[in-house]
């Protein structure tokens, strides 16, 4: 018998779905490089932002299971030792959200034997190509005109809006969540280039849909700032030393995750769907049984 919306909403996880886009007045906003206490990083030499999504407590006191869902940045630079580490996770598949231009730049994933590589591009709204063109120009005036004065942050907010408004993006997110909910599926890793935006939205949705409180899901999202800080600073210094950018601080809004970016996506959710429940059902195509299955598989 198919589950009704009312039956779904009786579960703790689904109750979180309804409340997800309506935080209480005065709720704390978590900003800056702060990693949650339950964070479980996978140390690798060729990737920076690789983590197990498990360990978070849900609203009803259960925990998200370890060893089933992993989030990461791109895996094109993994060492042989990294492959051994990933091989120990028992991954069944690795889902790559990068567009072809990103793959051509950074390389295809290096994966352990037996892991199925899945290409599932989610648009970056032209960010990668435009950023390469602007930096490659070596023109500080052009770079300031493109990225300064809040324009870089505004572009990132637009990228997040496409997570909700773009039909192909919604299909990719929905397909990924259905695979995470599939009974009997092996451990899954998904990633983009930096493991923070497309990967961050997928992770935020997953945690909220299984009943993790909003502040913890948001801490997981914002943790990329702390994890990536040293690496991103080296990238900026490299751009300066190579003479590519006089003011590499202009790209900081592109390197970071910010509450305002997440809020941009959630504003589109409310405007287009009225709330997270209709976004994931009508927008992403998840039926109530898939939502219940996601919680049953990932929490306990």
In short:
The protein has 14 helices and 6 strands.
Report on the architecture of this protein.
It is a single chain. With 300 residues, the chain is α/β, with parallel strands linked by helices. Helices cover 51% and strands 7% of the residues. The protein has 14 helices and 6 strands. A 6-stranded mixed beta sheet has the order 1-2-3-6-4-5, covered by helices on one side. The model is unreliable at 1-35 (pLDDT under 50).
Hey, roughly how much beta strand do the residues contain? 5-15%
Helix content: 40-55%
> Which blocks of ≥5 consecutive residues have pLDDT under 50?
1-35
Distance between the termini: 24 Å
User: Largest sheet, order of strands side by side?
Assistant: 1-2-3-6-4-5
Number of strands: 6
Largest sheet: 6 strands, mixed
Summed up, the helix count is: 14
Order of helices and strands: HHEEEHEHEHHHHEHHHHHH
Q: Rg to the nearest angstrom?
A: 19 Å
- Dominant shape: globular
The helix-and-strand class reads alpha/beta
Integer average pLDDT = 89
Key terms:
single chain, alpha/beta, six-stranded mixed sheet, 14 helices, 6 strands, disordered N terminus
Could you give the topology of this structure?
Layout: H1 5-9, H2 12-19, E1 40-41, E2 51-52, E3 69-72, H3 80-87, E4 93-96, H4 100-106, E5 116-119, H5 127-136, H6 140-147, H7 151-165, H8 167-181, E6 188-191, H9 198-209, H10 214-241, H11 252-255, H12 259-273, H13 276-283, H14 288-298
Parallel strand pairs: 3-6, 4-5, 4-6
Antiparallel strand pairs: 1-2, 2-3
